[in-house]
Amino acid sequence: MSTVFLHVGQCGNQVSLPFWKRTVRDENVKNSRTFLHADELQRSVHIDSEPKVIAKIAKTSSVRKKNLVCGKRGRGTNWALGYHGLLKKGEDHIVEDTMEILRKETERCDSFSGCVLMHSLSGGTGSGLGSRLCETIRDEYPMSHLLSCSFAPCQSGESPLQHYNSLLTTAYLNRYTDCNILTHNDNILERLQKKMETVSFNQMNENIAAALCGVFLPTDTLTTKSGASIGMEPWEMVRSLCPNPGNKVIQINHIARSKLSWEAMMGQLLLGLHRYDREGKPYKSLANLIVARGDSTDSFHSAMKTLEKKVKNAYSCVPWNPFPLDIWTARNNLTGSKSASLTVASNSSSVTDYLEFLLSRSQTMYKAGAYLHWYWRYGATEEDFNEAMEEISSIIDNYKEAVK
Ligand SMILES: Nc1nc2c(ncn2[C@@H]2O[C@H](COP(=O)(O)OP(=O)(O)OP(=O)(O)O)[C@@H](O)[C@H]2O)c(=O)[nH]1
Ligand SMILES: [Mg+2]
């Protein structure tokens, strides 16, 4: 079962660098050819509306050079421009080129299982083109899986358009994907700033890549008896974590350490978890997946016997799910330089805080008519905004209903 990765915009492509650096080292990935071809080239497509980052990607030896799609200029942090493209300037080839390359990639797969998209929620390309690609891929490959890894901007604000872009994109992701792994740049920054004074995108991306590899790379749990990985980790994760179609936002916590017991590692991971809302009420989780890597002595399952209650308590699992904790293990750990790692992917009601913030900021700006002319100019309509606001409200309602 093969997965094709699409990296869109600056953020999606910059995260791809450390992500693939780890992935191509994994022996199981190499042998199973689920994320790599027989010639060890990546099953990935890299798309940006401007050349700078794509030029950097082109230097990676494991990237198929024909799988690079590049426009002439960026989309100016504008969802509408990313979605509709520069129609008048003949730059609307990006979507067509990407779909053609994707078609060829799927034909190179023995068994194509689906696509993973990586992109920012606020950049013009990541948000607008990312939304457009999700819609187009769902339309052309309705029976295949589609998963998005989206990156939310710092709330303190980098661009006045970021709330609209994030709102519109989150609505598209909810409509067209099976699951949205949401990473908050704020959370990554907060974690890294405890260890270092200045934090670069590279350092953030290393951290993000380790967490994504934590859930995507082959595990022994999902490896067949013959020892072959079938590359189902991303899709088994979706099956396990999204019990309802209306609740499909996943957030990941990841920790990697050497020379620490599983109990101590889990203790540290839970310390960094945001457990309560502003009113002090605990967030609740619908389903969780724990992946332990570096379990060379097969000790994680016995450690979990004592940890289970603590983890269920910290993640405050809903009573209606009889199996709220799925556990996968792997003897090797290739998510980073440390010998062991723990990754917890969680479908939690904590996402409603972010969605409510996004909705209220967007509604306030929208009522004042702020910055809307930038969207009308490039083909967005009132309907786009109204539908997106309704979609976000319905995600919030679905989570409230699920954890009632
Ligand atoms: N984590 C992470 N975030 C990034 C990175 N690069 C940009 N971002 C974030 O992504 C958002 C901006 O999106 P970009 O990906 O730069 O924009 P783009 O998709 O190329 O779109 P345009 O340049 O507007 O056409 C901001 O919130 C940035 O903080 C990165 O390498 N890592
Ligand atoms: Mg850009």
Explain the overall architecture:
The chain has 404 residues and is α/β, with parallel strands linked by helices. The chain has a domain of 239 residues: Tubulin/FtsZ, GTPase domain (Rossmann fold, 3-Layer(aba) Sandwich). Helix content is 46%, strand content 18%. The chain is built from 15 helices and ten strands. It has a ten-stranded mixed beta sheet, with helices on both faces. Helix 1 packs across helix 9. The two termini are 37 Å apart. The model has no long low-confidence stretch (mean pLDDT 95). The structure holds guanosine-5'-triphosphate and magnesium ion. Magnesium ion (MG) binds next to helix 1.
Provide the structure class: alpha/beta
Separation of the first and last Cα atoms: 37 Å
CATH architecture grouping of the domain at 2-240:
3-Layer(aba) Sandwich
> How much of the residues is beta strand, in percent?
15-25%
CATH topology value of the domain at 2-240: Rossmann fold
Shape by Cα distribution: globular
Kindly report the name of the CATH homologous superfamily of the domain at 2-240.
Tubulin/FtsZ, GTPase domain
Bound small molecules, deduplicated:
guanosine-5'-triphosphate, magnesium ion
SSE order: EHHEHEHHEHEHEHHHEHEHEEHHH
Strand order of the largest sheet: 3-2-1-4-5-6-7-10-8-9
Provide the helix percentage.
40-55%
User: What is the count of DSSP helices, taking H or I runs of 4+ residues?
Assistant: 15
In angstroms, what is the radius of gyration? 20 Å
CATH class of the domain at 2-240: Alpha Beta
Task: Report the major sheet.
Answer: 10 strands, mixed
Q: Determine the mean pLDDT.
A: 95
Give the uncertain stretches in residue-range form: none
* DSSP summary, beta strand count: 10
